[in-house]
Specification:
The protein has 2 domains: 6-199 and 326-415, Aminopeptidase; 203-323, Alpha-Beta Plaits (2-Layer Sandwich), CATH 3.30.70.360. It is 32% helix and 25% strand. The chain has 10 helices and 20 strands. The longest helix has 19 residues, at 227-245. The two termini are 26 Å apart. The structure holds zinc ion. The site of zinc ion has 6 residues, from loops.
């Protein structure tokens, strides 16, 4: 079913391009990337929201490293037929740097349109969410169509560095309180056909293994204890133990298993003729929700103890980061079912609720008990040179959301 006429599609394409041209050239880089934050871009976007006829509310997080000493966050709501339900679209204003500019076909901070393609840093990640939300609101406002429930737009800062000043700050301030029952769509990852609805993530564990031996000259190994060899042995052993113990399988996730990968290897010594006394290897584990920090700590400590006592090396495992994924949004939640219905009706495809190993801001929402789906139509070009999206992707996402807000049983399902 097509909801948009050819004229409407043309009108939306023009608006999408003109909106991109307003904010993509206005950089929004975090102080960690040498930028001034999102203040300038937020000003442009807030002005646009106001000119569309939306009331906005700012909830800026203080950050003295950034322009105006703030990391801006903007909330806007278009009232629906019933206003005790709000469907939020969350988009982040910050981007990563352009990277190697010589690898770009077009200027990264210009907006180049070539047929269906739009190029520029941030057009997909996460300008696509911003443009989708604003174009959808404009479409409804221009036609005086009230959505079935409130349409909320949350434009946030600091996603690329950790969301402390962005969505994390909004949740800390209870910013979504007072809008009834809230549901969230986060267009920040997806698939080219728009069938992928991410409803769950894995717990993320980072740790490092420090193996201490005894440094000595390479010609007299008997006087030392080679931490590099022992480190290799220990990490291989640990790899086997982890893969033997963490055998859970859950089809909701892609991949459907817990992953444990040794990643970074720290430099040890400068020269070839010294036996290193210390060996450090970092690991990245993405755990199915049936495994938590406690389970892993137990396995790691036992392995380190056993290896230390049999070899004389001192093995220490340090957890360097842990992030709980929160409860998945159930695939039969009204938000997920209504989205699936809208996807089916507007594209004739079957949507697939799924879990991923990567971390998105949706985990912050789920941890607070809010239902959240990460979804958009994209080729996943984020962070790459020549980042692009396609106008047709945005149009179909707007159409799907329009269907969801206007036609699905979303309203009745939420109240049942
Ligand atoms: Zn993003």
């Amino acid at each position: 079913m097509k909801l948009l006429s050819e004229d409407e599609v043309e009108e939306l394409r023009n608006y999408i391009v003109s909106l991109y041209r307003k904010f993509i050239p206005v950089r929004a880089l975090a102080p960690e990337f040498g930028g001034e934050g999102e203040a300038d871009r937020a000003e442009v976007l807030e002005e646009e929201l106001v000119s569309l006829g939306l009331e906005t509310r700012r909830l800026d997080a203080p950050d003295e490293r950034a322009k105006n000493n703030v990391r801006p966050n903007i909330l806007a709501v278009l009232r629906g037929e019933r206003d005790d339900r709000t469907l939020w679209i969350v988009g982040h204003m910050d981007t990563v740097p352009a990277g190697d500019v010589s690898a770009w076909k077009y200027p990264p901070y210009g907006v180049t349109v070539e047929g269906d393609y739009v190029y520029g840093r941030g057009v997909e990640d996460d300008g696509q969410a911003i443009v989708t939300a604003l174009a959808l609101a404009k479409y409804l406002l221009d036609r005086d169509v009230k959505p079935s429930v409130n349409l909320g737009i949350a434009l946030v800062s600091d996603e690329e560095v950790g969301s402390r000043y962005g969505l994390g700050y909004l949740l800390e301030k209870n910013a979504f309180h007072g809008w009834g029952e809230n549901s969230f769509i986060v267009p920040d990852a997806g698939s080219p056909d728009g069938s992928k609805m991410i409803v769950a993530e894995k717990n993320i564990l980072h740790f490092k293994v420090i193996v201490r031996g005894r440094q000595t000259h390479a010609s007299t190994p008997h006087k030392g204890l080679n931490a590099h060899r022992l480190g290799m042995q220990f990490n291989i052993m640990l790899d086997e133990i982890l893969h033997e113990r963490l055998v859970g399988y859950d089809e909701l996730y892609e991949p459907p298993v817990t992953t444990c990968e040794p990643t970074k290897k720290e430099a040890n010594i400068e020269n070839t003729n010294t036996i290193p006394g210390v060996d450090v290897v970092h690991w990245d584990c993405r755990l199915l929700p049936s495994y938590g920090l406690k389970d892993l700590e137990g396995i790691l400590r036992t392995a380190a103890y056993a290896f230390s006592s049999s070899t004389g090396a001192r093995v220490e495992v340090q957890v360097t980061g842990y992030s709980d994924a929160g409860e998945p949004t159930p695939p039969n939640h009204p938000l997920v079912e209504s989205m699936a219905e809208a996807i089916r009706e507007t594209r004739s495809i079957k949507a697939k609720p799924m879990g991923i190993g990567g971390g998105t801001v949706a985990r912050l929402l789920r941890k607070k008990g809010y239902p959240a789906v990460v979804w958009m139509t994209c080729d996943e070009t984020a962070h790459q040179p020549n980042e692009y999206t396609r106008l047709s992707y945005l149009i179909s996402d707007i159409e799907t959301l329009l269907y969801m807000l206007a036609k699905t049983t979303f309203k009745s399902r939420l109240s049942s």
